[in-house]
Write a structure and sequence with these properties.
Layout: E1 3-4, E2 13-23, H1 25-31, E3 36-45, E4 54-57, H2 58-70, H3 76-90, H4 110-119, H5 123-127, H6 141-202
């Protein structure tokens, strides 16, 4: 279980965990003995949330948040972060607890960033390399270090706006859920009223 808290992007704190839920019938039949079924959950603590983290089936949560992001109701950057962390979790890899993961930073070529991630797990680590140690980064060390510095700074500059937008989107989402519940209750009341009227006419 790994805990992720990317403060530089103001994303909610979250982690994944495999939970045993009954028996996997398919695998049990194949192997001839009971095999437990594991479901991956995401535990996420929204800003201002009191108490413990909210729990969701990870696959369902990611699909829902992707749809919300596509509709402009959720931060697409957060969804990407969740997806990358989920993929790493399923692959048995570890992403850093804090900071921007170097391994998932798309502006550096994939093979290069994977190699860099062993020594510099986060862009913050990469950004802190002094001129005297640029040779440790390798070819184009200065350009890569400066790219990391610019990325870290840009996310710090944008973080208040990102949080404000996320808070606004969360408010809209809650309002829409409230309206949906009220609409459902109204439909039920109208249905009950209609049934009563029909019974009264029969009598």
């Amino acid at each position: 279980m790994t805990f992720y808290d990317h403060n530089s992007q103001k994303a909610p704190a979250f982690f994944f965990k495999d939970v045993e839920e009954g028996i996997d019938d398919v695998k049990s039949t194949e192997l001839g003995y009971p095999v437990p079924r594991f479901i991956t959950y995401i535990y996420i603590t929204a800003y201002g949330q009191k108490g413990g983290a909210s729990e969701f089936v990870a696959a369902d949560f990611l699909q829902r948040k992707k749809r919300e992001a596509d509709a402009g109701l959720y931060d697409g950057g957060w969804v990407k972060q969740f997806e990358d962390a989920f993929a790493a979790f399923k692959a048995g890899k570890e992403l850093p607890v804090n900071g921007i993961p170097t391994a998932t930073y798309k502006r550096i070529a994939e093979k290069r960033r994977e190699a860099l991630a062993y020594k510099y797990p986060t862009l913050e680590d990469l950004a802190s390399v002094p001129d005297s140690a640029l040779i440790d980064i390798g070819l184009d060390g200065r350009n890569i270090r400066d790219l990391a510095r610019a990325e870290v700074q840009s996310r710090k500059d944008l973080s208040p706006l990102v949080k404000e937008l996320a808070d606004a989107n969360e408010t809209i989402r809650r309002q829409e859920e409230t309206l949906a519940r009220l609409s459902e209750r109204l439909d039920l009341l109208e249905s009950a009223k209609s049934k009563k009227k029909s019974l009264a006419e029969v009598e």
